[in-house]
Every structure is written in C-alpha cells, then in structure tokens.
Amino acid sequence: MTTPSLSSLLMVPVNAVMRIIEAPLRRLQKATGIGGMAAFFLAPNMLIFGIFVLLPLVINFVYSMTGGTAFFLSERDFIGGAQYSRLFECQNYLDPMSCQEDAFWTAVGNTFWFVVLQVSLMILTALITALILNRELAARSFWRAVFFFPVLLSPVVVGLIWKWILQRQGLLNFGLYQFGMDPYTWLTDRNWTFAATIGVSLWAHMGFYALIILAGLQAIPKDLYEAAEMDGTKPARVFWRITLPLLAPNLLVVVVLALIKSVQVFDEIYVLTGGGPGTSTLFLTQYIYETGFASALRNPGLAAAASILMGGVLVVLTLIQLGIGRRGESKGKR
Amino acid sequence: MGEIKLTDVKKSFGALAVLKDIDLHIRHGEFVVFVGPSGCGKSTLLRTIAGLEKVSGGEIEIDGKRVNEVTAADRGLAMVFQSYALYPHMSVRQNLAFGLENSNMPKAEITERINEAARMLEIEAYMDRRPGQLSGGQRQRVAIGRAIVRRPTAFLLDEPLSNLDAELRVSTRAELAALHGRLGSTMIYVTHDQVEAMTLAHRIVVMRAGKIEQVGTPLELYNEPANRFVAGFIGAPHMNFLKAEVVAVSAGSATLTFAGGYRADLQSGQAKLQVGDKVTVGVRPQHLVVSGDPQHPAAKLYLVEALGSETVVHGDIGGEKLLAVLPGQQRLNAGDRVHFDLSKPVLHVFDDNGHRLFTHPGSGG
Amino acid sequence: MGNVARFILRRRGAHGSGKGWHWTDVFTWVWLIGGLIIMFGPAVWLVFSSLKTPAALAEFPPSILPYVTSQATVEGYDKPLMLYNATMPDGSTRVLAEVRRIGLVAQMVDPNAPGEIVKVNINDRSPVRTMSFATNNYTEPFVHFDFLRYLWNSVFVTVVATLITLVVNSMAAFALSKYEFKGRSLAMLVILATLMVPLSVIMVPLYSIISTLGLFNSLWGVILPTVATPTGVFILRQYMLTIPDELLDAARMDKASEWQIYWRIVLPLTAPALAVLAIFSVVWRWNDFLWPLIVLSRRELYTLQVGLSIYSGELNVQWHFILAMTVVTMIPVVLVFIFLQRFITTGIAGTGLK
Ligand SMILES: Nc1ncnc2c1ncn2[C@@H]1O[C@H](COP(=O)(O)OP(=O)(O)O)[C@@H](O)[C@H]1O
Ligand SMILES: [Mg+2]
C-alpha cells in the first residue's frame, strides 16, 4: 500500500492525459447533452467498423464486377457479371479440370472435403475429450490445459512444428524407423498431405471446441444424474437419454462454429503445405489470396467474386448459428 | 436555502405516463416524505427533482430558479440511493471525496469536510475500507456521509432504510431525524413504509399511480384523510371499511344503516347527503370498542392474536371483514361473537368515489 | 502414498462397487496419456530440435536430445579430430581421435599421446557424444538477420492494437450498455453483422482501402482494421450491463461528467472483462498472419509470423534458425498460457468466442 505498485506508476501519465482531455469533454457534454456523449463514445468504434468492415463489404460487390489488375477502383473497368460467369464456366460440371477457373473448383472441392472430414472428426474428438474431462478426474484443470495448449499457438508456429515433424528426417519417420519401417516423404504425397492438413488442424483447434462442449456438459444439472443413478440407469443409457439431448443445443452451436472456421481454413495449412503438392491442399482462402495478390496474373475482381461466394456460405452458416443461439437463449430465459 | 417548487410536473416513459400533474411546494428546511405503494412513481418524482430524469412537462424550481434544463450535477442536490450506490472500487474516504474533487475543491477543505462527516456519522474507524468490506448499516452511513460532505441545498433519499434489518431500521430512523435537526437542510425522503413516513416527516406526500393524493402533516393525514386511499394507507393496521347507506338526513346529522341492518346516528357536519346515498364508513382498528349490548352488531371472530400489550382480533361483521386492536389481554377465542358499538369510535365516511364526506368525531374520548 | 495413487487413478469401479477397472476408465487414461503425448510432444520436439546444430538436425535417425560428436585438437594435426570410444582387442575401451579411415579400419591416435597410431575396426568404435546446446541458433538470427526488427514489429503491433482495442471497444460497450438512444439497436446489429465478415471475405477491397489511406506497408495498416472487434464489444457490454445504473446516477449527482463516469467508475469496475479481452487481443494480434502478409511487403516491416513463414518458404531452409525463431515466437503465447490459462478458458466457455 505504501510503496506505489508498478501499475499505479504506469497510470500516472495516463491519468495526466485524462485530466487534460477532461475539460474539453465536459464542454462537449454541455453542448451536446448526455445523449450526445453516447454518440461520442460510440463514434470511434463505428468509424473503424465503417471504414474497415462495412465499406470493404460494399466495395467488394463493385470490385467483383470490375476487371483488370489495378487496385484502385477508379482505374478499374466495369465488366458486369463477367467474373462470376468466368468462375462458373465449365464444360463438364462434374469435372473441375474442365472449368476455365479450374483452380477455383479445385479449391472448392478441397475445401468441401476438408470441411466434411475435419468438422466430423473435430466434433467426435472434442466430444470424447469433453466427456472425459467432465469425469471425476484428479488434476482436471491440468488435463484441460493439455488439450487446450495448442489452441493459443500461432498458425505459423503450428505449421512449422508439423512441417518439421513430417519432414523426411522428422519425428514421424523416426517413429517408423523404430518399428523397422522405411522413412517416407509425407508432404510430397497428395493423399497423405491432405490427411495431414486435417490432422494438424484437429491438433490445433480441438481443445477449443472441447472446452465449449465441456462448459455445456457442466451446465447440465447434477441432480439429473443423481436421479438416474437412483433409478439404476445404465451409463450408456444415461449418455443417450440425458447427456446427449441436453447437450444438443450446445453441440449444434459448436458444429456451426466449427463449420464457419473450417470453411476459412488457411494460415497453418499455407505454412505447412503452401497448397501443395500440386493443388492437393489448395483451399478457398488461399485461392482468393493468391488470385488477388500473389499470383503473377493477379485478378482482384475474380478474387472478390470468389470471396463473395464464400461470404454467402458463411452468412448462411452464421444465420443458422444466430437462430440456434436465439432459440437457446429464449429457452434459457424461461 | 432549499426551497423546491414543482408545478404541473409530468413524466412519461414512452407511452407510459408515470407522473401526472404533480404540484408541490417544499419549504426550506422541511422534512418531506413521499409515500405510496410500490410502482406509484415516488422514485421517478425524486429523480426528476434530482435532474436524473428529464420532465416531460411542467416546471421545477429550486430556490426560485427554474432548473428544468440544469443537469443533475449543477442542481446542488445530493442523493442517497436505495442500493447505496457506493463506488465499489474506492475506499470510504475516496467515496466521500469523489464529488468534492469533481467540483475542484481545495484538498485541505475536502479533508476537513470528510473528517467532520466521519465524526458526525461515527464512521472514522473504517475510512480506508472498501464498501465490500462493510456491513449493511455501515454502508448506509457512508452513503449518507457522501451526501453530507457535499453540503447540498437539499437531500434526496430513496428508501434509504429498506435494505436494513428491522432493528437497525428503527435506530437509524431516529438518527436520521436527529441528523435533520442538526443540519436543518431540506430533506425529501421516499418510502413505501407508512410508519417511516409518520415518524420522520414534517409533511407527508401520499402518492398513487403517479398522482398526489394528499399532502399534510402526519396527524392531518391520520385524522382527516382526504380519501379512502389515504385513509387506508396511513395507519397500521389498515382502517376497516364497512358499507352503509344513508337512511335519514337532518341538519348536522345523518342516520346510516350497515350491512347487518344496524342503524347509527352520526354527526355529519356540513356534508351534503341525501337519503339513499351509498357510502363507505372507515373505522381504525384501535378505535373499535367492545360493547356488552347485544343490540350492537356482532362480529364472529375467526382469529385472535394475543400480543400481550394488546389483542388483535379478526372477525366477520355482516359479511365484511373487521379487524380490531383491543387494549390489554382479552379472554377471547376464535369462534366467539363480540359486539362492537359503532357510534362510539371516530368514523370516516366516504362517498362512492372515495372522497371523504365527513368525520364523525365519536364519543370514546 | 496409497491415497495419492487412489486419488489420481480414481475410476468408475472404485466409485461404486469397488470392483476393478471399467472399460471407460481404461479408455479415459489411454485418451489422456495419448493426448498428453500428442499435444505436448510436437512442441517439446521443436524445442529440443531448436537447440541442435545443423549437422545434428540432418542426422537420421535423429536423437531426441541435442548431442554433438566431440572433437579434439590433437598436436600435429591441423584440423580438429573426431573422438571415438574404441574397444580394444583386450576388451578395454579408450577414447581415441580418428585421423583417417581406410576401408573397415580406422587409424586413430590417443589425444594425450599423439605419437602412436592405433588401428581399430570401425565396428569397434562409436562416436563420443556430449550434450551441447547450439545457442547461436538463437543469437544469430537476431544479429545477422532481421529477427530483432520482426520481434519489435510484432511487439509494437500487439501492444498498440491491444491498447486501442481496449479503449475503443470499451467506449462503444459503454455507450451500448448505459445509454438509451435512437439507433442503438441498429448499432448493435451492425456490430453483430461484422461477426459474419471474416478477413478472407473482404481482403481484396480492404487492401484497396488501406492503400488509399496510405497505410500499405505500414504497421498501422496491420493494426487499424483489427481493433474494432465485435467480440470485444460483446464481452465488455455483457459485463457492463451488470454494473448497476444507480452507480452512474450517484456519480452524476457527484458532479462527474460522462467521460469521468466512463473513466473513473465504469472502466475500473470492468477490469475483469478488460483483462480477458486484453489477453485475447494479445494472442490474436501476436498470431495474426494473413493480413500482415498482405499489408507488409518490405522486409524491415515484417512481423515475426510473416518473417518466419517467408524464411521457412525459401529454397534453402535454414531449419536451425527457423526452429529457434519458432520457439521465440511461441514464448509469449506459452507464458500467457501458463499464467493466464484460467482466464482464457473461462472466457471462452463464457462467450463461445475465440
Ligand atoms: N426508465 C424507465 N423506463 C420505463 N419505465 C420506468 C422507468 N423507470 C420507472 N418506470 C416505471 O415507472 C413506474 C414508477 O416507478 P418508480 O418511480 O420506480 O416507482 P416507486 O414508487 O416504486 O419508486 C413503474 O411502473 C416503473 O415500471
Ligand atoms: Mg422506488
């Protein structure tokens, strides 16, 4: 108490600044009234939202209807829906390679399979982990931390860790060697690489979903289980008849959340595989990024069109999530 | 100074009219209590005076100056909130100092005022504690202290005792009265508890559904309630109300019949009555007198509460409920029939609309 | 001791009838131990690897710990010689330095008596290995590459973005939780809507806006689009709604201006939620990758994440540096994890947002 703490020392300059701006703000309040101050408090956030989220959202539509490689809107030519028709121009709609933008359709296909496999495995493993963490465990918070640990790691770190492990001289091959098998160059094999992207993203994010499911499990009233125990209900029956139905709303939210994140997959995979080998792990976000910025024949209009299509999917998923959330909320209130 | 005048004050939240045409003149140094059932608009009225709510119509004057457009900060009033609203992250001392610092008072004077208030309220021992470390009663004192240090033109108190336990409430009530005597400033006090109102107020403002029903001293309200609502609200236990009909009128007196057919001659003063008028007769439970005369209406008791110093009996008279507070310890049981002399006690007679027509002075003494 | 074991290995069977292990107990422990290995193993492997010399990194099979083959300078030889444990014909072992190898026979000398050459069958010798930490994996990238610069850029972006996030979002949350005004629900809706707009959907137009504002190749271009997070507004607003309005009224009676109410009353009381948001923001901004990759094209502006990915994508990947820098990049997040894990897990469980 007597010696000033570090934080209170840090606050000295901050408080000085606050004292200086206090007087003009008081005058502002005199002029605008309390209601005006509400606008003042909201303004910075709305300004940033407006410039960096809403404006781009609007511009995106304009962008998707213009051509050329220039970035400034004024230098771009209006071409109507040409970008969209280009995306959808295919000889055979069952074969992405017959499309003009075969990379787009490859990315769509890859993303689709990635989403399907990753989300189902994610929910399964996260649910198992949550159920296990919800048991009477010693040092439960330690075990929770174990599964949660990779969640905070940066995608680049995740990508590099696994790139190092899947290397020819990496840990995985070392493991095979111990069992007398030959080392393999995993990241040059299309199927193994695709599997690796799923595995790595499971590794990196499973803890997050497990945590949300765990919160849902812990919200189930204990007396229900006690009542079931009194009735001598079998554990499997308790799971199917009590746990799962009561967890369902929470689980549904988790599924949609996982879908939303999964559709946008990029960072760690880009570092791990760069989309390769070939285009076997090229996903939508990377397609948009490369079409818009990185490739030699960059085409921001096409990238915008693709991103709007992706945005459409995300909006649908988010609306589903909000719908579920709303329903859960009104249920909770009752 | 501390004269507050409300003229025709209205307040609505959207379509909901919460205050309707409030006229009130509060004199300097007065202790005024707003009382009324929950949700009748007492807090809202207090908050419009404070400047925390803008009026939808009418005028508020403080010391002769119109303050409708003056913000809460500049009205020179202090408020004690029902929840105390102490700043949880500040010590008691900082809580008291906050308002003074905001008006750029010199440090020395702030210290002096805080010390004085602390002495007065006997809160010196815990000046460096946070509100969370205090008991309810201690917090309450700090909340009052925060108002005192400001030396406001008037204190506004919104149910300041309602979060205390019964015993503490009684002692703090007495302290508040003493404090008002010492400070001599205007105090406006909101409560839904009529006992608090009766014990503290110079004048009581009885409110119902956004309207003022009556303004007067506690005894005025008790003795001459303007209407049935005030009569029922002031006084505990509540006044009994019995239906009656005027059957005969003469100068200065009237004859009424009660539900059971019992007749009584009452002194009706100047009241204008007509034969056939349906009226309601109010009688306070304490005023009822047991009679030995079997002619008098009988009540069938269904509950007898012996409190030692008095006996409370609940009964049924001619199909209407009757509650009486009888002195001392009575040998009565549920199921007994007891006769009451209805011309002896003070009787308030109300018309169909609830307005008081006249009061029969009674003859009980 | 028995108690501890029973506590740690608490299981279904023990709970009820005291009979042996239920299959779910076995499964639980397989899952937990497997999880421990899979979740921590890769990171531990990374840390050990980052301490190895390039030569040790190229070895296969690799050793777990960073070993190097010992060398010794021996009188009469210019270059340092490799040291081996050699098994002599009589069964004793000696530490010898290898001079050269001819076929299956190595010519070796005793480092202490370099005069006499000893011939040893190569199957009878094994390298002398000692643990050695290649700390220059860590020091060199800071000195010879731009990593110090990247580190600084990352720290700058993280700290500044977090501070602005806290101020801007708490102001908005304050307005949205404590004032009634026209357009409040519209503002809420707008903020909610932005939850649906991830970077990948708007990166192209956002880039053009950043360029127009002259923020391309500027750390501010990285910072500004990230600071108005809807998540932040929601977390803070939810918390501020629990602060009683009477407290604000009391402050108004105490002559506080609205700004003072925000700064002196509401903000201190929101500290727990601000702490959660600050932790989230630090982790988010430290880990940001795609957007900095787009905005920053000059090497001296790279953040750690961008720098790392660019270096790791080069043709001749210098893994020993990359691994060490990956560890450096991981450190702040691991610190956050160790010390603030409880905050984060409750934060996520409470809001369902990452
Ligand atoms: N901010 C508000 N918005 C809408 N209605 C309100 C608001 N404040 C009070 N009311 C309504 O006004 C009426 C009077 O409230 P109040 O003055 O608090 O009553 P009380 O006499 O119990 O103090 C109540 O019906 C209440 O619901
Ligand atoms: Mg009230």
Outline the secondary-structure elements.
The complex is a heterotrimer of chains A (334), B (365) and C (354).
Chain A: H1 6-64, E1 66-67, E2 77-78, H2 82-87, H3 102-133, H4 140-152, H5 155-166, H6 171-178, H7 190-218, H8 222-230, H9 235-263, H10 267-273, H11 284-294, H12 300-333
Antiparallel strand pairs in A: 1-2
Chain B: E1 4-13, E2 16-26, E3 31-35, H1 42-50, E4 57-62, E5 65-66, E6 77-80, H2 92-102, H3 107-121, H4 136-148, E7 154-158, H5 166-183, E8 186-191, H6 194-200, E9 203-208, E10 211-216, H7 218-223, H8 228-233, E11 240-250, E12 253-258, E13 263-267, E14 278-283, E15 290-291, E16 298-306, E17 310-317, E18 320-327, E19 337-340, E20 347-350, E21 356-360
Parallel strand pairs in B: 3-8, 3-9, 6-7, 7-8
Antiparallel strand pairs in B: 1-2, 1-4, 4-5, 9-10, 11-12, 11-14, 12-13, 14-20, 15-19, 16-17, 16-19, 17-18, 20-21
Chain C: H1 2-8, H2 12-15, H3 23-50, H4 54-58, E1 67-69, E2 71-72, E3 81-87, E4 93-102, E5 105-110, E6 113-121, E7 125-127, E8 129-131, H5 136-144, H6 147-178, H7 184-194, H8 199-212, H9 219-223, H10 230-240, H11 245-253, H12 258-269, H13 271-287, H14 290-295, H15 304-312, H16 319-351
Antiparallel strand pairs in C: 1-8, 2-3, 3-4, 3-7, 4-5, 5-6
The structure holds adenosine-5'-diphosphate and magnesium ion (MG).
